[in-house]
Structures are given as C-alpha cells and as structure tokens.
Amino acid sequence: MAPLKRYSPLPGFSLAMGYTLVYLTLVVLIPLTAVGAKTMTLGWEAFWAAVGNPRVVASYQLSFGASLAAAAINVVFGMVFAWVLVRYRFPGKGLVDALVDLPFALPTAVAGIALATIYAENGPVGGVLRSFDIQIAYTPNGVLLALVFIGLPFVVRTVQPVLADLEKEVEEAAAALGASRGQTFIRVILPHIAPALLTGFAMAFARAVGEYGSVIFIAGNVPMVSEIAPLMIITKLEQYDYAGATAVASVMLIISFLLLLLINALQGRMQQRQTSEA
Amino acid sequence: MSASIALIPGNRQAYEAPSTREPIWVKGGLIAIALTFFAIFLLLPLATVFSEALRKGWGAYAAALIEDDAWSAIRLTVLAAAVAVPLNLVFGVAASWAIAKFEFAGKRVLITLIDLPFSVSPVISGLIYVLMFGAQGWFGPWLHAHDIKIVFALPGIVLATVFVTFPFVARELIPLMEAQGSEEEEAAVVLGASAWQMFRYTTLPSIKWGLLYGVILCNARAMGEFGAVSVVSGHIRGQTNTMPLHVEILYNEYNYAAAFAVASLLALLAIVTLGLKTLVERQTRRQTHEKSTLTGE
Amino acid sequence: MSIAIRNISKQFGAFKALDDVSIDIPSGELVALLGPSGCGKTTLLRIVAGLEYADRGQILLAGDDASDRHARDRQVGFVFQHYALFRHMSVFDNVAFGLRVKPRRHRPAESEIQRRVKHLLELVQLDWLANRYPTQLSGGQRQRIALARALAVEPKVLLLDEPFGALDAKVRKELRRWLRRLHDEIHVTSVFVTHDQEEALEVCDRVVLINKGKIEQIGTPESVYDHPATPFVANFLGSVNLFHGRVEEGQLHLGDHALALDKTAADADGKAVAFVRPHEFDLLPGAQAGGLPAKIVRIVAVGASARIELSEIDRSDGEVIEVTVARDLFRLLALAAGDVVSLRPRQIRVFQTPALAA
Asked: Please, which residues have CB within 8 angstroms of residue C344's CB and are 6 or more apart in sequence?
C-alpha cells in the first residue's frame, strides 16, 4: 500500500497540516454541518412546506434562471475581453486590464447602490432606456444586470491565461493548411479555450446564485417577481423562522457543492491538459 | 508595406503575420464592444459612486464621514478586518506549506474543502453562525445562560468575516509555492539551516508578493463583506453596523449623498486594492521570469 | 570520508526506482553514477544526501550508519541540477549562507565568514562577482557558485546531481576539466550523477553504471569501456555495432560468415549478441574468408579519423555498420563509396542470450 505521505527532508509538515485541519474544521466544517443537522431535524413535511412555498419556488426560479442567463452573457463578453486584452493593443488597455477585477474588489453593497442609481428611472442610463420603454431597475432585468456585473471577471480571468498560452505557430499552421481566419477560430482556438470557458461559466454561475449585496438594491424585491433566493433566507430569518431559512439554504448549499465539484474537476482536467502539453 | 517591416529585425513584435490577423473591422469591432461594455458596466458605476457622494458638495461629504454612526461603522469594519486577516494569513501560510511542499493522500480533497467558503452564498455564511450561536442555535441556551452574546454582536461579525475570507491567502499561495518547487528549501536544509531559518531566508522572500496580494484581497473582502455580516449583525446603529451595512441603512433612508459618501471610502479601498494587485502581478511576473531564466526551463 | 551504500531499495508506487544497490566508495574518490534518465541514479544520490529515504538498506558515512540521520546533520555538500541558488541573495550571501545559519556556538565570526567566502570565490575564480545576483550570472558561473556554496560548510562528502546538464557543450567541457582539477586539489569524496558517458569516463576515478534501478557494472573508466560486463554497458558506453548470431566452436557465425573469437570471449555455444566498436575493425579489400563482406555506402572524412558507413552484402535490411579508421590509413586504403570490403574485427565482445530467442 502506498504510504499516506511521501518522505520529504523539509520540516514542518505535521505542524502545518495539523493547524490547517483544526482551523478548517472549526471555521468551516463544523458550522456548515449545522445547516445539515438543522435540516435533518425538520422532517420532510416541514422541509417541503418551506421549499415548496410558491414564493420560494419563484425565488429559486429567478435566482437560477437569471444566474444561468448572466453566466451565458458573461461567456460571450468575457471571451471578447480576454481576446482583446491578449491579442490587441489599444489606448487604455492597462486600465481595462486592471479594472476588469473591479467586481471582485468593489464591496457588493457599493456596487448595488451604484447600479440601482444608474438604472433607476431617473438615473443616467435608466432615464434613456425609459424613453424606449425598457425598465431595468426593480424588475428581473435588474437582477440579471447585477449578476452580469458580478460574474464578468470569472470568465475573463480563466480564459485570458489559456488564450495567452496558445502558440501563434498553431494558428499559423492552420492558416498554412488553408484554413480561413474563421475556420481557425472555430476549429483550433475555440477547442483550446473551451475548458476555460466552461470553468469560467461555472464559476460565474456559482457566484451569481449566491449573490446578495449587489442584487437586492436594484431588484426591487417584489414578491413572486423579483425576489432572489438569498433574500428569502433573510426574510425568513427576520421572521425568526430558522427552520424555513435553513431549508431554503440547504437546497442552495447542495447545488453549490455540486457546482464546486464540477469546477474542481474541470480545473483538474485543464491542469492535466496543460502539463501533458508541456 | 508590412512585408518590408518584417525584414527589419527587432521590429518583429509590432508586425503581425497577415495569416493570423483578423480583418480590421473585426478587430475594431471587438475593441469597441469591449470598451463600451467596460465603460457602461465598470467605469460608470465607479464614477457614479464618487459623483453621487459629492453631489451636495465637499462639506456634506465630510460631514457624512465624521458623523458618529459613520465613524463607529468605520472602526468596527477595521476591527473585524484586523482580526480576520491575520487569522487567515497564518492559516493560509500553514495550509499552502503543507499542500505545496509535500505529497500526501487526499490533497485534492483538502484543496476543495479550503475552497468551500467561496462557493457558499454570503447569506448562508451568516446563517450558519446563527444556527450555531443564535437563540435557537446549538450553543444558544448555554450562551444565554452565561450571558455571552455572539450573534448580533461583534464576535458574530468577526466570525462571519473570517468565514467569507477564509480561502483568500491559501488560494494565492498554493499555486505560487507549487510553481516555486522545493529545491531552494532543500538546498537550505542540506546547508544546515533550521526550520525557521529555511522559511525566513528562502521561502518567505520568494512568496512575499503573493502573500501580500492574498492579504490585500482578503482585506478588501473583509472590509466590504455585506451579506454574511448583514445576517449576524443585528443592524444596531453605532454598535453593530459595519461600513457596508451603514451604506445600506443610509440608502434605505433615502439619504443618498451620505450613503454614497461612505460607499466612496469603500470604492477607494477597491481602487487601491486593484492598484496594488497590478503592482504585485508585475513583481511576480518578474520573479517567475527570473526563475525560468535561472533553471533554463 | 568513505561512503558505503548497502542493499538500498526504493519504490515509488509501483515503480521500482532502486533494487538492492550496493556501492563502496573509499575516502577521497571521485565517482560517477552513470545511466539513462529514469534509471534511479538521482534517487540514489538523494538517498545518500538524506533528501530521500530508502525503503530498505543502509547508508554508512565514514563507517557509521547514517540511514536515519537528517539531511541537515549528514555534513554533505549537495549541488542541485538547476543549482537552486537563492534568487534574492547576492552571490556572496549565497556562499555565506551555510556558515551564517550555524548555531551560534559553532558559527564563525563575521570576519572569518568574510575571509572564507572570499577564499571560496577565489577557488572557483569568481571573486569579482560577489555582489551580483544569481540572475545576472551565466549558467557556468551559477554552477561554480553552487559548488562554492556547497563547499563553504566544509562537507565531508560532495554530491552533484547532473552538474553540467543545463550547460552548453563548450562550457561543459571546460567545467569538467575544472572540476577534476578542483577535486585533485581538495580531495573531498565526491559522487556525481550524469547521463553523459563521455563526462563520466573523462572526469572520474570510477564509474558506476546503473540501469533500471540495478547496478550493471562498477569499475575504472578504462575497465568498463574495454571490458563491459553486460550488453547494456557495451551498448551505453561509446558508439558500437551490434550483431546477432551464434557461437559455435569458438567462432561467431553471422549468416554464412564465421568470425574468429578470442578463447576468452565465449565459453559455450548458442545464440549470442556481439558488439564491435567502430575503431576495432580491420578493413581488407574485396571479399575475403574470415571477414564480413560489406559495401561502402558513405564516407565522412573530417577530422582525425574517417567514418565509413557500410552495409552487409548478405543483408538487405539497411542496417548500417559504422567503422572509423585513422586518416592516414584511410588515405592508404584509397576507398570510395560502392567498394566492397571485408570487415575483420580485432576485438569482439560476445554475450550469450539464451533468453533472446528471437
């Protein structure tokens, strides 16, 4: 049988590993099991009563639907950003490259009130759109918009390094073999960056499903229309309905874990491909 | 024209082979799309924060910041970050040392577990502490009997902040330390260095920029966290309000100028974070370049 | 300090890196571990250094069992393949590192450290680079600094992992000579790992040939080159022509042709592989008995010797026989492509291969 750990002359493994496991258990694992434990005490009936409530179902639909749409939009624009940043030179490129991460760095509440102000009916963009009869703030459109904002960096930052890694020779070889630029993109470049795109999509989706701060200000939170699932948890907590909040949360947690496993598997595959190529 | 440019050595970078170049309208179109998206989605919100903050002038701006409740929110935010960041810093270094420098069974599982808090909704991150320490929670009755308040008080805010910023430092360091390899540490050990000397003189200098970056990100998230803190805070003005929560309250009271004034401080923090990030990335790129020229890889 | 490697075995998962390896290295010797990549030689070196632990077996340093001693306490100098110089330290600080991290009571005074580092940098002829950083040095310079750093702690044993592997051919040759001279000067027991046979044969006192985790042969460069113990060694050291045939009554039969063998070359009849080095052939004009008839395909007459490529007349599989002859002799023979000659080996190494049925 293989040993649990390979010998290394470097010191500190037991200490580092011990500390890591204890801290991880205390801060993350035990608290997370609290959700599971609490859900177990509910019983099916109470669980379904909470999760199957039409208002909750509507919030799930909005959260997952808008998150999927936002992640899909991010794949398109994220790829454009990554492409432009890797391949072209243009004025302001450094600034664009630095600010792509703004949704990571900007506190969500700040993003939330800023977006709400811009897209409100009397806001700079919302006002313009209103004349075309398009309403964004306080509708599901607002939720989608905020989720697009929050998810953009995920796709850009996973695709960018992979695209930069693609050797020019490969494209030149395709061109020399008679492929048009479009064919080269679809048959050579796209397959190369597809795993990264998929990873970025999954990450953006996972983040969007759980997002709270940047959404609630612009969503308007109209029951059955523009309430997101995390808001339902808060609402139930404010009514001291801990059981209901936990039930709603447990469904989200399970989906998050599945997504995390998927992302990890995708990243593992990406790494494998890169190392086998190198 | 371009063919003659290609013949001049040293000018090759500027020259792109026509075979792998898009038509000018495609290139221009893509750049235009990216810049438009950039302006509407990234620049405009940032600009809005500052213009709204200053809408009523510098006087109102300053007044919103030095007002008592705002001031106590700033103090609480700094305090929560001052506890959470060092805790996760120590954890991050320990975890990345164990993971990057040693081979052991279950490594991938451990990395996945460390990533967990990233994929948990902030609201749920707060909820878990309510379930543990809240009035109806596991330790609720015991805490109540001993008159210890965790949820809706400072300890709850700190715990939630620790949870949501948990993976940041480890996440930055693990790939960096894996890429660095262990040869320098082994050289130090063979030369007789103690564990601390090895870490202090070989590991730390090679990871310092990545470490700094991890701390910066960790801090930005710690100070900016909204959802998780919102659940455990109790929203008591002047007592359990962090800056993002204070922004929310002011905004919901239609006190937009004041809300954006406090928000502008957080936006400044984000800008500083991104600036430092760009700087750090440049440093690590230089370091990895040096590393690759050193090993001839 | 002498090194004794006793019955060392090491396994990585299902892969047997080392299989019951034993070597004795007397004090002051310079030994090369030679073998193809992945043969286990680097693993063995790391086990001697304490950077890796063996599954079974012992490492004795100066007669004492050091198997459980930590790398820190083995008093070995280790030169890493990619040098592992501390990037953020100057050349001087790199070399001084081992002295500065000594426990306070063993640590020399700073002035003594300065003196010793200066002396070491002079020894490796790079004292003028003391304030540079590793990235500002060439590959050969980094190599010498790595060596100076390893020597600073006055190790009893010096271990070098592919020390010249990452350098270009010319620098490599220079450093090889320089390492030999250095060793003659300081006489520290040294082991170095290489996959380059020329390097091993030229520099060291003894060569240990390793293949697939096992020792094939140990001996001086001359003895392993002239008297390879196994087909692997014959094949690995220098270029060589390989023939498949049968040994019968003291002769090697290749198809219809028979070549005479030394009395000592083979002791039993049967299938065999035979090795002949390119410079160990006599060329006789035309087809003659007791020789192998072959047709000249190509001649490269550049340098001190001429290289002649031939193909066996009776074989059409395109297998090329390589023969080298001195330029003077080549001129006398007046050979041209297309000529038929008889090859008569002066020396044949025969290995009987009952297992090699095909």
From this structure: C259, C281, C282, C283, C284, C288, C290, C291, C292
What totals of helices (H) and strands (E) does chain A contain, helices first? 15, 0
B192 touching chain A per CB within 8 A: no
pTM (2 decimals)? 0.84
Neighbours of B175 (CB within 10 A): 13
Nearest to A230 among B121, B130, B162 (CB): B121
Look at C72 and B193 and tell me if their CB atoms are within 8 Å. yes
> Is the domain A44-277 a CATH 1.10.3720.10 member?
yes
| A131/B128 Cα distance (integer angstroms) | 45
Q: What is the pLDDT of residues C87-117, one digit of tens each?
A: 889 999 999 999 999 888 989 999 999 999 9
Encoded tokens for B49: 């924060």
List pLDDT tens digits, range C113-159. Answer: 999 999 999 988 899 999 999 988 988 899 999 999 999 988 989 99
Q: How far is B211 from chain A (nearest CA, A)?
A: 16
| B151 contact A CB<8A | no
ipTM confidence: 0.88
Q: A19-57 burial by CB neighbour count: b if 16+ within 10 A, else e?
A: bbbebbeebbeebbebbeebbeebeeeebeebbebeebe
Q: What is the pLDDT of residues B127-138, one digit of tens each?
A: 999 988 888 888
pLDDT of residue A2: 55
The set of chains that have 3 or more CB pairs under 8 A with C is A, B
User: Nearest C-alpha of chain B: how many angstroms from C38?
Assistant: 19
CB neighbour class for C170 (10 Å; exposed up to 12, middle 13-18, buried from 19): exposed
